[in-house]
Amino acid sequence: MSLIEQTGLRLLHRFDPETAHGLALKALQLGLSPTTGTVTSSRLRTSFAGLLLPNPVGLAAGFDKNATALRPLSRAGFGFLEVGAATPRPQPGNPKPRLFRLTEDRAVINRFGFNNDGMSAIANRLKDRPRDAVIGLNLGANKDSENRAADFATVLATCAAYLDFATVNVSSPNTEKLRDLQGKDALSALLAGVMETRNGLDRPIPIFLKIAPDLTDAEISDVSDVALSSGIDGLIATNTTLDRDGLVSAHRGEKGGLSGRPLFEKSTRVLAQLYRATKGQVPIIGVGGIASAEDAYTKIKSGASAVQLYSALTYEGLSLVPRIVQGLDDLLKRDGLKSVSEAVGTVA
Asked: Domain 3-336 falls in which CATH fold?
């Protein structure tokens, strides 16, 4: 990390976290954040659910909720980007404060509640997206919707023409009863509607499902069964957790979803369980607590074909991305592997 980036992060941490996040996005839009361009190699280039990626390290949803910084983010070293979540109608989300740094734990707690500008505004920004990037959208449901399951298909139908993939997010802990849609019957019905919409598109795109890390073994088995039977193209494991075990930071008792370092082991266990339960037939994106090349490599060896990160950027800045990507390339080379796919699931 450069001295300039260190100074910038120290300044941002003087503000409350949500204000700091807004300033970070503004810096990106103004070209004030470090961008390295595409980072790739013959080992790093990979495919996921039919998507050709220059490298397997992506940006998780939530960082750019409203698709306002697509161009600079596409030059930050990521292999792919996921923006959103987007809901049919704009909504303000939960009352502030709703974002908390847990510095001692290298973690973050948020209870945003799907705050976003709505699908129409986000679709208009996606129209002007960089064409050389792989960009997906996290699909959400309005808090006061009478039919949350239908909301996902509605957002997909509106935005799909400008996307490379879309993610069904039923695993946020910050919208009341949203996680109830992870039950086998409810999830099957929801995905059936989304897949019907996807299949009717002029250009069908891959559909992923993002799940929570707080599922029981039986629930993980159910999700695996639904993933195999529904025709979805991939899983994302995992979203944030409600678990607070072992935290020491002052904000550890705040309500919301915990992300960052404390999530790493739990999300990786769920990832490995999903990989085993699906027998590797459903590609998985591993997310949760990644802050180094070694972390990304562990996720891949546990069953992930690609990975995503977000919270670590709070503490390490955007220069972390090319460091992880280059470090992953070095690890693959060290182990005599010619591709990411050769490492997937080797220790699951």
From this structure: TIM Barrel (3.20.20)
Rounded distance, CA 7 to CA 229, Å? Answer: 50
Find the helix or strand (DSSP H, E) in which 6 lies: helix 3-12
Would you call 259 helix, strand, or coil by DSSP? strand
In eight-state DSSP terms, residue 176 is T
Q: Dihedral of CA 274/276/278/283: which sign?
A: positive
Could you read off the pLDDT of 25-47 as tens digits, one per residue?
999 999 988 788 999 999 999 99
Residue 186 binned pLDDT confidence (cut-offs 50, 70, 90): confident
Tokens representing residue 185 in the block: 């019957």
Give me the active site residues, please.
172
In the DSSP assignment, the letter for residue 91 is: B
Task: Give the N- to C-terminal CA distance of the chain in Å, as an integer.
Answer: 33
pLDDT at 176 over 70: no
SS3 assignment, position 348 = coil
Cα gap 242→109, rounded to integer Å: 9
Q: Which residues of 142-174 are buried (b: 16+ CB within 10 A; e: fewer)?
A: bbebeebbbbbbbbbebbbebbbbbbbbbbbbb
Residue type at 306 in one-letter notation: A
Q: Order the strands of the 107-110 sheet from edge to edge.
A: 99-102, 107-110, 257-260
In this predicted structure, what is the pLDDT of residue 234?
98
- Its pTM stands at 0.97
